[in-house]
Design brief:
This protein is α/β, with parallel strands linked by helices. The protein has nine helices and nine strands. A seven-stranded parallel sheet has the order 3-2-1-4-6-7-8, with helices on both faces. β1, α1 and β2 form a beta-alpha-beta unit. α1 crosses α7, α3 packs parallel to α5 and α5 runs parallel beside α6.
Length: about 270
């Protein structure tokens, strides 16, 4: 089932309740997507998401997946690819964590790092290798604008995202010439259920707007997508600021920063 650029027929979502991923899948179903796999921790929310996509006309299946259980990833994801080619994988899981708590609770900080980086590396490599064997496909990795320059207010989450961002870029280079396309998506603050209690950062966006940027990026086979696009210049300017000035430019502690809507080990 070979994909037309930007219009996949089959989609695997890692983080099956991700608001960004589900908004993207809804757009793709309205175009051409007909088969969707939602991978996540079994929950009423995962089943509800699957029902909603079925109502839109897509054959939608769920598969148990936990980012914190990499020893099971090969078997779990292997079963999905054994059912047929996957045109698009959306890697959309992660956790924000609670910075003030996590920096005094090493096990909690490790959980954030293992979810956002280790679990993502494991699942991304498995999917990339499967798509390399099938000879085509796109892997979309949800990073964060916060990865560009880590702030005091969210350095645990943002540092893991920075590692994932670098990994995904390198993976894209490793897959050049194989028919597999890797795209890194860097959203800013996304207004979702999980970020409802945080003060929106400048250039705050929505899952629907990020989904539109993802679809456009797939059509262009872009390597990196910013959402919104204006963040590219904003973050470039921030990287040039002296540390003393950058420190003063940040949000008040606890006020929120660039944040995507991550809510659990297998979900966004």
């Amino acid at each position: 089932m070979k994909d037309v650029v930007g219009s996949p027929q089959s989609v695997l979502v890692l983080g099956g309740t991700s608001e960004i991923a589900l908004a993207t899948v809804r757009r793709l179903i309205s175009r051409r997507a007909r088969t969707v796999w939602l991978a996540g921790r079994p929950s009423p929310a995962l089943e509800s998401a699957a029902r909603q996509l079925r109502d839109l006309g897509a054959e939608t299946l769920t598969v148990p997946f936990d980012a914190l259980a990499p020893e099971a990833h090969e078997v779990t994801l292997g079963k999905v690819f054994a059912e047929g080619d996957i045109d698009l994988v959306l890697l959309a899981f992660g956790v924000l964590g609670v910075q003030a708590r996590d920096e005094t609770d090493p096990p909690a900080a490790v959980r954030v790092a293992q979810t956002n980086y280790t679990g993502a590396v494991s699942s991304a490599l498995i999917c990339a290798n499967a798509m390399r064997r099938q000879g085509h496909g796109s892997l979309v990795v949800l990073s964060s604008a916060a990865a560009g320059r880590v702030r005091r207010t969210d350095f645990i989450h943002a540092s893991a995202k920075a590692g994932l961002d670098a990994f995904a870029q390198g993976l894209g280079e490793a897959l050049r010439g194989t028919g597999v396309h890797v795209m890194v998506v860097r959203p800013g603050f996304v207004r979702t259920k999980l970020t409802a209690g945080l003060r929106p950062a400048p250039l705050a966006t929505t899952p629907q707007a990020v989904a539109e940027a993802i679809e456009e990026g797939l059509r262009r086979r872009a390597a990196i997508v910013w959402a919104p696009g204006a963040l590219r210049l904003t973050m470039a300017a921030r990287r040039l600021l002296p540390r003393s000035v950058f420190r003063l430019s940040g949000p008040r502690r606890g006020a929120g920063n660039c944040a995507t809507s991550h809510d659990g080990p297998a979900d966004d």
